[in-house]
Design goal:
238 residues; alpha+beta; Fructose-1,6-Bisphosphatase, Chain A, domain 1; D-Maltodextrin-Binding Protein, domain 2; seven-stranded mixed beta sheet; three-stranded antiparallel beta sheet; 6 helices; globular
Protein backbone atom coordinates (compact mmCIF):
# COMPACT_ATOMS: atom_id res chain seq x y z
CA UNK A 1 0.00 0.00 0.00
CA UNK A 2 1.52 3.29 -1.15
CA UNK A 3 0.02 6.49 0.25
CA UNK A 4 0.37 9.04 -2.54
CA UNK A 5 -1.75 11.28 -4.76
CA UNK A 6 -3.21 8.31 -6.64
CA UNK A 7 -4.22 6.75 -3.31
CA UNK A 8 -6.21 9.86 -2.35
CA UNK A 9 -7.68 10.32 -5.85
CA UNK A 10 -9.05 6.78 -5.70
CA UNK A 11 -10.55 7.32 -2.24
CA UNK A 12 -12.12 10.57 -3.45
CA UNK A 13 -13.67 8.76 -6.41
CA UNK A 14 -15.06 6.08 -4.10
CA UNK A 15 -16.51 8.61 -1.63
CA UNK A 16 -18.08 10.55 -4.49
CA UNK A 17 -19.90 7.39 -5.56
CA UNK A 18 -21.22 6.94 -2.01
CA UNK A 19 -22.39 10.56 -2.05
CA UNK A 20 -24.19 10.17 -5.38
CA UNK A 21 -25.69 6.74 -4.64
CA UNK A 22 -26.67 7.18 -0.98
CA UNK A 23 -26.17 10.50 0.78
CA UNK A 24 -27.54 13.02 -1.73
CA UNK A 25 -30.70 11.01 -2.62
CA UNK A 26 -31.49 10.25 1.05
CA UNK A 27 -30.64 13.45 2.93
CA UNK A 28 -33.81 14.77 4.57
CA UNK A 29 -35.87 11.95 3.05
CA UNK A 30 -35.53 9.16 5.57
CA UNK A 31 -38.40 7.01 6.73
CA UNK A 32 -39.16 6.71 10.43
CA UNK A 33 -37.97 3.11 10.56
CA UNK A 34 -34.60 4.14 9.09
CA UNK A 35 -33.73 6.25 12.15
CA UNK A 36 -33.04 5.08 15.71
CA UNK A 37 -31.61 6.47 18.94
CA UNK A 38 -28.44 5.08 20.51
CA UNK A 39 -27.79 4.64 24.23
CA UNK A 40 -26.07 8.04 24.43
CA UNK A 41 -29.16 9.69 22.82
CA UNK A 42 -27.33 10.35 19.56
CA UNK A 43 -29.09 9.39 16.34
CA UNK A 44 -28.10 6.70 13.90
CA UNK A 45 -29.64 5.82 10.56
CA UNK A 46 -29.56 2.65 8.54
CA UNK A 47 -27.40 4.57 6.04
CA UNK A 48 -24.73 5.29 8.66
CA UNK A 49 -24.36 1.52 8.97
CA UNK A 50 -24.51 0.87 5.22
CA UNK A 51 -21.84 3.50 4.45
CA UNK A 52 -19.65 2.34 7.33
CA UNK A 53 -19.71 -1.24 6.08
CA UNK A 54 -18.90 -0.03 2.56
CA UNK A 55 -15.93 1.94 3.86
CA UNK A 56 -14.64 -0.89 6.04
CA UNK A 57 -14.75 -3.32 3.11
CA UNK A 58 -13.03 -0.81 0.83
CA UNK A 59 -10.16 -0.11 3.20
CA UNK A 60 -9.71 -3.74 4.18
CA UNK A 61 -9.40 -4.60 0.51
CA UNK A 62 -6.56 -2.10 0.06
CA UNK A 63 -4.62 -3.30 3.10
CA UNK A 64 -5.96 -1.69 6.28
CA UNK A 65 -6.54 -4.33 8.96
CA UNK A 66 -7.23 -2.48 12.21
CA UNK A 67 -10.30 -0.29 11.81
CA UNK A 68 -12.18 1.60 14.52
CA UNK A 69 -15.60 2.68 13.33
CA UNK A 70 -18.40 4.63 14.96
CA UNK A 71 -21.26 2.19 14.56
CA UNK A 72 -19.10 -0.94 14.77
CA UNK A 73 -17.58 0.27 18.06
CA UNK A 74 -14.44 -1.76 17.37
CA UNK A 75 -12.34 -3.20 20.19
CA UNK A 76 -9.06 -2.61 18.34
CA UNK A 77 -8.15 0.59 20.16
CA UNK A 78 -5.13 -1.00 21.85
CA UNK A 79 -3.41 -1.53 18.52
CA UNK A 80 -0.52 0.73 17.62
CA UNK A 81 -1.80 1.37 14.09
CA UNK A 82 -5.42 1.83 13.05
CA UNK A 83 -7.85 3.57 10.73
CA UNK A 84 -10.81 5.49 12.17
CA UNK A 85 -14.11 5.75 10.26
CA UNK A 86 -17.01 8.16 10.79
CA UNK A 87 -19.48 7.37 7.98
CA UNK A 88 -21.80 10.37 8.45
CA UNK A 89 -20.58 13.10 10.74
CA UNK A 90 -23.65 15.25 11.35
CA UNK A 91 -26.27 12.51 11.39
CA UNK A 92 -28.98 14.85 12.72
CA UNK A 93 -28.29 17.19 9.80
CA UNK A 94 -28.58 14.23 7.44
CA UNK A 95 -31.93 13.31 8.99
CA UNK A 96 -33.24 16.88 8.89
CA UNK A 97 -32.11 17.69 5.37
CA UNK A 98 -29.38 20.16 6.37
CA UNK A 99 -26.50 20.09 3.90
CA UNK A 100 -23.77 20.10 6.55
CA UNK A 101 -22.47 16.55 6.78
CA UNK A 102 -19.07 14.98 6.30
CA UNK A 103 -17.33 11.64 5.95
CA UNK A 104 -14.29 11.56 8.25
CA UNK A 105 -11.30 9.21 8.26
CA UNK A 106 -7.89 9.15 9.91
CA UNK A 107 -4.95 6.75 9.93
CA UNK A 108 -3.03 6.76 13.22
CA UNK A 109 0.39 5.23 13.73
CA UNK A 110 2.34 5.45 16.99
CA UNK A 111 0.19 8.38 18.28
CA UNK A 112 0.77 10.36 15.08
CA UNK A 113 -1.67 10.94 12.23
CA UNK A 114 -0.36 9.64 8.91
CA UNK A 115 -3.32 11.12 7.05
CA UNK A 116 -6.83 12.37 7.65
CA UNK A 117 -9.76 12.95 5.31
CA UNK A 118 -12.81 15.17 5.63
CA UNK A 119 -15.14 14.83 2.65
CA UNK A 120 -18.07 17.15 1.95
CA UNK A 121 -20.41 14.83 0.01
CA UNK A 122 -22.96 17.50 -0.90
CA UNK A 123 -20.47 19.78 -2.65
CA UNK A 124 -17.95 17.06 -3.58
CA UNK A 125 -15.03 18.73 -1.83
CA UNK A 126 -12.26 16.42 -0.64
CA UNK A 127 -9.90 17.67 2.07
CA UNK A 128 -6.98 15.60 3.31
CA UNK A 129 -3.81 15.89 5.34
CA UNK A 130 -0.54 14.15 4.51
CA UNK A 131 3.14 14.88 5.06
CA UNK A 132 2.34 17.86 7.31
CA UNK A 133 0.29 19.56 4.60
CA UNK A 134 -3.40 20.21 3.90
CA UNK A 135 -4.91 19.54 0.48
CA UNK A 136 -8.24 20.64 -1.00
CA UNK A 137 -9.31 18.58 -3.99
CA UNK A 138 -5.70 17.34 -4.18
CA UNK A 139 -4.09 20.77 -4.36
CA UNK A 140 -1.99 21.88 -1.40
CA UNK A 141 -3.36 24.91 0.44
CA UNK A 142 -1.90 27.22 3.05
CA UNK A 143 -3.37 27.93 6.51
CA UNK A 144 -5.64 30.96 6.69
CA UNK A 145 -4.67 34.26 8.28
CA UNK A 146 -7.57 35.04 10.59
CA UNK A 147 -8.39 38.73 11.06
CA UNK A 148 -10.98 38.30 13.79
CA UNK A 149 -12.27 35.59 16.10
CA UNK A 150 -15.42 33.85 14.94
CA UNK A 151 -17.19 30.80 16.30
CA UNK A 152 -19.54 29.47 18.96
CA UNK A 153 -18.81 29.64 22.69
CA UNK A 154 -20.63 27.38 25.12
CA UNK A 155 -20.54 28.12 28.84
CA UNK A 156 -17.39 26.06 29.39
CA UNK A 157 -15.63 27.80 26.51
CA UNK A 158 -16.65 31.25 27.74
CA UNK A 159 -14.86 30.57 31.02
CA UNK A 160 -11.78 29.28 29.22
CA UNK A 161 -11.66 32.17 26.75
CA UNK A 162 -12.35 35.01 29.20
CA UNK A 163 -8.68 36.08 29.20
CA UNK A 164 -7.91 35.03 25.62
CA UNK A 165 -10.72 36.40 23.46
CA UNK A 166 -12.15 39.82 24.33
CA UNK A 167 -14.41 40.13 21.29
CA UNK A 168 -15.69 37.73 18.68
CA UNK A 169 -18.36 37.19 16.04
CA UNK A 170 -20.80 34.46 16.99
CA UNK A 171 -21.31 31.65 14.52
CA UNK A 172 -23.42 28.73 15.65
CA UNK A 173 -22.10 25.21 15.41
CA UNK A 174 -23.10 23.25 12.33
CA UNK A 175 -23.80 20.13 14.43
CA UNK A 176 -21.00 18.41 12.49
CA UNK A 177 -17.44 18.58 13.79
CA UNK A 178 -16.18 17.80 10.31
CA UNK A 179 -18.12 20.64 8.77
CA UNK A 180 -16.94 23.04 11.48
CA UNK A 181 -13.38 22.07 10.57
CA UNK A 182 -14.12 22.70 6.89
CA UNK A 183 -15.23 26.20 7.86
CA UNK A 184 -11.99 26.66 9.81
CA UNK A 185 -9.98 25.55 6.78
CA UNK A 186 -11.87 28.07 4.65
CA UNK A 187 -11.34 30.90 7.16
CA UNK A 188 -14.99 31.04 8.21
CA UNK A 189 -14.43 29.88 11.81
CA UNK A 190 -11.44 30.64 14.03
CA UNK A 191 -12.36 28.56 17.05
CA UNK A 192 -14.53 25.57 17.88
CA UNK A 193 -15.34 23.43 20.86
CA UNK A 194 -15.64 19.65 20.86
CA UNK A 195 -17.58 18.10 23.75
CA UNK A 196 -17.62 14.40 24.53
CA UNK A 197 -15.82 13.51 21.33
CA UNK A 198 -14.84 10.08 20.12
CA UNK A 199 -11.69 9.27 18.20
CA UNK A 200 -13.50 8.83 14.86
CA UNK A 201 -14.47 12.51 14.80
CA UNK A 202 -11.79 14.04 17.06
CA UNK A 203 -8.69 12.60 15.37
CA UNK A 204 -9.51 13.66 11.79
CA UNK A 205 -10.51 17.11 13.07
CA UNK A 206 -7.34 17.40 15.15
CA UNK A 207 -5.13 16.49 12.21
CA UNK A 208 -6.39 19.50 10.26
CA UNK A 209 -6.51 21.90 13.20
CA UNK A 210 -2.95 21.05 14.18
CA UNK A 211 -1.75 21.94 10.67
CA UNK A 212 -3.85 25.12 10.78
CA UNK A 213 -1.70 26.10 13.78
CA UNK A 214 -4.67 26.18 16.14
CA UNK A 215 -3.98 26.34 19.86
CA UNK A 216 -5.82 24.04 22.24
CA UNK A 217 -6.51 23.40 25.90
CA UNK A 218 -5.03 19.92 25.49
CA UNK A 219 -1.62 19.38 27.11
CA UNK A 220 -0.31 18.09 23.76
CA UNK A 221 -1.60 17.24 20.31
CA UNK A 222 -0.75 13.56 20.23
CA UNK A 223 -3.35 11.16 18.93
CA UNK A 224 -3.98 9.05 22.01
CA UNK A 225 -7.03 7.87 23.88
CA UNK A 226 -6.68 10.07 26.96
CA UNK A 227 -8.52 12.83 25.07
CA UNK A 228 -11.81 10.98 24.86
CA UNK A 229 -14.88 12.43 26.56
CA UNK A 230 -13.15 15.72 27.34
CA UNK A 231 -14.29 19.27 26.59
CA UNK A 232 -11.75 20.33 24.00
CA UNK A 233 -11.24 23.83 22.63
CA UNK A 234 -9.32 24.72 19.49
CA UNK A 235 -8.60 28.30 18.47
CA UNK A 236 -6.50 30.31 16.05
CA UNK A 237 -4.02 32.91 17.17
CA UNK A 238 -4.69 36.15 15.31
Amino acid sequence: MIINKIFFLEIHSYLKKIAIDIIIPKIGKLKEEEVSTKIDNSKVTSYDVIIENELINYFKNIGFKNIISEEGNSDLIKKNEYLTVDPIDGTRNFINGINKVAIMLSFIKSTQCEFAIIYDPINDVFYHTHNNSIFKNHNQIKPQNYNNQIGYLGEHAKIYFKNIITSYTEKIRSRSIGYDVIEAIEGERSFLTVYGSKIWDLFPAMSFLKLLNFETNLPNMEFDYSKLEKKIIFYANL
